[in-house]
Amino acid sequence: MDKNKEVWFVTGSQHLYGDDALREVAAHSKEIVAYLDEHAVCRIVWKETVTTSEGIAAVMRDANACRNCIGIITWMHTFSPSKMWINGLSILNKPVLHLHTQYNEKLPYESIDMDFMNLNQSARGDREHGFIYACMRKRRKVVVGYWKDSETIDSINVWIRAAIGFDISRSLKVCRFGDNMRSVAVTDGNKVSAQIKFGWTVDYYGIGDLVEEINAVSDEQVEKLFDEYKEKYEIVTDNIDSIKEQAKYEIALEKFLNDRDAESFTTNFEDLHGLRQLPGLAAQRLMGKGYGFGAEGDWKTAAMTRIMKAMSDNKSTAFMEDYTYNLEKGNEMILGAHMLEVCPTVAEGSIRIDVQPLGIGGKEPPARMLFDAKSGSAVAVSLIDLGDRFRIIAAEVESMKALQKMPNLPVAGVMWEPMPDFKSGVKARLLAGGAHHTVLSYELTTEHIADFARMADIECVIIDKNTDISKFENELMIGDIVWSRR
Ligand code: MN
């Protein structure tokens, strides 16, 4: 829960109903805000009821300028003529949620009169408000329901988590150690467009700069960190030297990133000049601490890993790759893994450290953590650059225990079945161009990702239990027209 960040709650009205009515509007909205603040994952801050074009523009200007404000919620208790909102909404550059609620849950059947009707007319007022958003093509989340209802609160919290991710995104720095893997298309993309769209600074660093940092790590620092490993994990190898080499990488990488205010990084096994091993355990440890990571120079997934870790409080959210299949009829499943770098936040049970050969890259066998992954519903997210735009693909998956033990699997792995079923889920991913690299999160849902995509104003395609392939294919074709015109 990030109580440093805040969402502003702006209630709209007008002067037509007199000062007594406005006092009641303010009292009601304060009560709603107090309740939401208690139940939300960031602070909800009450703002004076707005009743004029000047007042609305002023609160929007303040929201834009406030570093801690990550978005605004608007709600019309009464009727607020929406021509007054045009000026303010046209300058607002923070995410918006239009909350369509009503102060009273039930109609007061016995006592309802014209005074009550004048005061409690969100049903009218929010329609006027929705119209101006639609007219201005202002993208916003609409949440409908009584303000104390848990579904309403949950939906607001999903949006707040997306806004926390979007806020991090605007100033995110990604260190690229080496370029992306030679000739690979999907991990590449336009870094200038990404900075304009998402705010990411994606800078290259020569591997020699990191090697220098690694060489500066003292034996004492390594021993101290190794003691921590011994305490937390089961060490199942005699190759202690390899584990200590990774400890050195962890210390050096973390310092390198912190010195540059970077929260995310990439490696590439093709570009390790001066390193004895590919960072494996080191990358896993840093992901466990909340840093973003992308292998093979995949800076887009590195950034999304960091963002989704921020959205999920770094719970059960990992860099992942669709690796290999079980295609046995009736038990079709995907085995997700990576050659080393699977984040321990998705681990279930104890974690072992082992050293095994990598098979590619021509370096020493690296140390890595091994574990079984959790079962449960998750979302697998891939961000791709189609040349003229970014597309985010969010797929619902059901993760489960492996049908049998895999005693020789040298990496941590996750088994899952894509929704709506194996064939349709995989087909949809292929049609959409979803990459082999994803961010897998058990904490987040497609709703979080759709909310984030709306904030960043990018195309979002969802693959879930309702996906129908023929409609999905059409949706992609329609998306091509829509997004090429924006
Ligand atoms: Mn990979």
Topology:
Blueprint: E1 2-12, H1 19-39, E2 42-46, H2 53-65, E3 69-76, H3 83-91, E4 96-100, H4 114-119, H5 122-135, E5 141-144, H6 150-169, E6 173-177, H7 191-198, E7 201-205, H8 207-215, H9 219-232, E8 234-235, H10 240-259, E9 264-266, H11 281-288, E10 292-294, H12 299-311, E11 317-326, E12 333-337, E13 347-355, E14 367-373, E15 376-385, E16 390-400, E17 413-418, H13 422-432, E18 437-441, H14 446-456, E19 459-463, H15 469-484
Parallel strand pairs: 1-2, 1-3, 3-4, 4-5, 6-7, 6-9, 8-13, 9-10, 16-19
Antiparallel strand pairs: 11-12, 11-18, 12-17, 13-14, 15-16, 15-18, 16-17
Helix pairs in contact: 2-3, 6-12, 6-14, 8-10, 9-10, 10-11, 13-15
Manganese (II) ion (MN) binds at residues 295-296, 321, 338, 437.
Task: Briefly summarize what is shown.
By secondary structure, this protein is α/β, with parallel strands linked by helices. It is built from 15 helices and 19 strands. The structure holds manganese (II) ion (MN).
